[in-house]
């Protein structure tokens, strides 16, 4: 009983404490040692975030744009691949899975450093498309692995049955395949988005400090020791994650 | 096979192609530094380099300690939440929230909480244990990488707990009930029934955690010490150095890191096949 209570407390603290702390920090002002509460409450950080004078709104737009394109491309690339991987046997399938595992298991540092020279030659360094391309290196394998799981639980015969009943390719996709894999597809989209959204190192390496995304701004404010603005930025950075979890929880409750 | 073409383009072109270019550029074919013939000197130089050696040891130590602590805490958390998670599915979602917190955010939080004038130090002041910030132990950018390890334990414990909870939900409690009927004590049930049931999932997810921390950058970048730092930070620092001649060294470090990741991935897939006899069910 006590063990369970500690467990619940730990899980709740792990989930809620970060948000509460960041919110307090973001509204704090003149919070000096050794006070446990801020000397003043202030919306300065949030005003700064939304003011046109700061570079934060453009950085958020850049981050969103990169993450959205990476999500759409990842899904488009992963959907056909996942179907094949889930339903068909072919020589080299194990090697293919091994290759898929690598960029997922550890951030693909060597690849990014390796393509840097090539990107330089094609004018892709310090550009948004260049950054999108390196974000695809971890995002695509992750999406493929997740969607392969969805397709494995889906029986290809269902598609065949629909076709026998006279459904065209589009109708099969719209009324049979899509509804069956929709939850997995949504989850894969969320993960692809979050992988790109939270990328720092590869954006710096390929973007060369010219492509400014939210994580770059976050780190520079952390280095500049402005706690309130850093905390506000961290909350914005967390927003898509929180949103994704709220939607997942809602979905789970509806289908429980 | 046409269906695999776009994926192969990303995987072979960008990922494997990138690694191949990295291997070339670190073995003497790096035009910007006027290197045009095969050499392994960047590798030997790095392997003999004191900073690299210290960084390698630090990286392995941080990854190992963080993984072990996360595995122990994760299993404990899963066991304590087990009965609740069965009745209240939202518990599973709650456990998984920290998994999705970006590492950068975790680092920012820990700087505010663990630094010498941070919240924990202030609680210490309120309790009368510390009077001044410098009396509080250095837990961020510290010599023992306590800040880095704390960040990873907080991030990875929920991951292991989620995997263990899923495993417990799948196996049910019949085995434990049976053992209890046969007179096994609670500890005997845990030791001889529950742990062996959990072991494959916990070991394989621990390998993933270890590989990830081994190759990580953001957390040691913000919470680690400048010297020695973890390998990802060493590679980044040398790569972005003004001196282009350091770039092949940086790439050599990242290629060595990939090699270790590849060995871990291979061992992971082998383990999954031997124990479960199927495709990795992680994702």
Describe the model.
The complex is a heterodimer of chains A (256) and B (283). Chain A has helices spanning 2-26, 44-50, 56-87, 93-105, 109-121, 128-152, 156-164, 169-197, 201-207, 214-223, 227-255, and strands at residues 28-29, 40-41. A two-stranded antiparallel ribbon of chain A has the order 1-2. Chain A is mainly α. Chain A is built from eleven helices and two strands. In chain A, 78% of the residues lie in helices and 2% in strands. In chain B, strand 1 (29-30) and strand 2 (35-36) form a beta hairpin. Chain B has a two-stranded antiparallel sheet. Chain B has helices spanning 5-26, 41-48, 50-87, 90-100, 103-114, 119-126, 146-171, 174-181, 186-214, 218-223, 231-239, 247-276; strands at residues 29-30, 35-36. At the A-B interface, helix 1, helix 3, helix 4, helix 5 and helix 6 of A face helix 1, helix 3, helix 4, helix 5 and helix 6 of B.
